[in-house]
Automatic annotation (TrEMBL):
InterPro entries for the chain: NAD(P)-bd_dom_sf, SDR_fam, SDR_oxidoreductase
PANTHER family: SHORT CHAIN DEHYDROGENASE, SHORT-CHAIN DEHYDROGENASE_REDUCTASE FAMILY PROTEIN
Keywords (A to Z) from UniProt: Oxidoreductase
Domain of life: Bacteria
This protein's name: SDR family oxidoreductase
Gene3D superfamilies for this protein: NAD(P)-binding Rossmann-like Domain
Family, similarity comment: Belongs to the short-chain dehydrogenases/reductases (SDR) family.
CDD domains in the record: 17beta-HSD-like_SDR_c
Length: 274
């Protein structure tokens, strides 16, 4: 039987993962800011569901809850760092507190969770660490800069971490969905653009919110399949919009770099003046 540890299990992808895992007969250590939001699942699944209050920005709480979860279960096979949210608005217009809080949640929360989960996974002889990233960890939309900073941040951190912990039998999976029909876009903070940005790119983010193709249950199912397969992939690009946009973006980036090859090599030579 597989045991999961999941952050942000109250709604969206985190809750869907919790429900699908329980429906498979797995155990779930679900963490969320309001544990009572899983009362219905607790009634249905009894001891298979273990839950604790946990805000990922409270590192002391993360450490304590992780310790309790590993103590309460024989082993935890998959840790899912899912909690996160977005902030829309011109980068200049965001309040300092908004910048700091989204970084504290999406990056610092994920980093500190991983730093505290890895010793447990190492001691039990391995496991899988799943980190929710996004197509927005490879491409960008104006009006969403701070969110991209957090997802590009987790891409770099977890790619490097994956190499460090692979020798301990710990696999890392970066999940990169496109736009998924969850409450994410309703929950996102929206900062009205100030006068200089009105009518500009930050004022009309090119996010086709009305035409989201991603299915919450489809994404959760893909995460479960990937985490439990024999050789979990480092990157799990999900949904047709993300597949098309990320592959096209990376191709364009590669072509731009290749067109600059001579410039890149020339910078190896000392500059001696004109
Ligand atoms: N939906 C998309 O289009 C999409 C696309 C790519 C990536 N993602 C990523 O997928 C993950 C899940 O998003 P979702 O679509 O499921 O969004 P969602 O429906 O808005 O759910 C977000 C979850 O994160 C939790 N959360 C936020 N801040 C938290 C904190 N400080 N501590 C603990 N939990 C916190 C929320 O809890 P509360 O109920 O307490 O607020 C909620 O459970 C996020 O990392 C997001 O960036 C989403």
């Amino acid at each position: 039987m597989t045991t999961w540890f999941i952050t942000g299990a109250s709604r969206g992808i985190g809750r869907e993962l919790t429900e699908q895992a329980l429906a498979r007969g797995d155990r779930v250590a679900a963490t969320l800011r309001q544990p009572e939001r899983l009362d219905d699942l607790a009634g249905k699944y009894g001891e298979l569901l273990w839950r604790r209050r946990m805000d990922v920005t409270d590192t002391a709480q993360v450490e304590r809850v992780l310790g309790e979860a590993f103590a309460a279960h024989e082993r935890i096979d998959v840790v899912v760092s899912n909690a996160g949210y977005g902030v829309f608005g011109a980068a200049e217009d965001l309040a300092d507190e908004q910048v700091e809080r989204v970084i504290a949640t999406n990056i610092t929360g994920s980093v500190q969770l991983a730093r505290r989960a890895v010793p447990w996974l190492r001691r039990q002889g391995g496991g899988v660490f799943v980190q929710l990233s996004s197509q927005g960890g490879h491409l960008t939309f104006p009006g969403f800069a701070i969110y991209h900073a957090t997802k590009w941040g987790v891409e770099g951190y977890f790619e490097a971490l994956a190499k460090e912990i692979e020798p301990f039998g710990i696999k890392t999976v970066l999940v990169e969905p496109g736009m998924v029909r969850t409450g994410f876009y309703d929950a996102a903070e929206r900062v009205p653009v100030s006068a200089p940005y009105r009518g500009g790119p930050a004022d009309t983010p090119a996010l086709p919110v009305e035409n989201m193709v991603g299915s919450q249950s489809g994404v959760a199912h893909a995460i479960i399949e990937a985490a439990l397969c024999e050789d979990p992939p480092l990157r799990l690009l999900l949904n047709s919009d993300a597949y098309d946009a990320v592959t096209a973006t990376v191709r364009r980036r590669l072509a731009a770099w290749e067109s600059q090859r001579d410039l890149a090599y020339a910078a190896d030579t000392d500059y001696v003046g004109a």
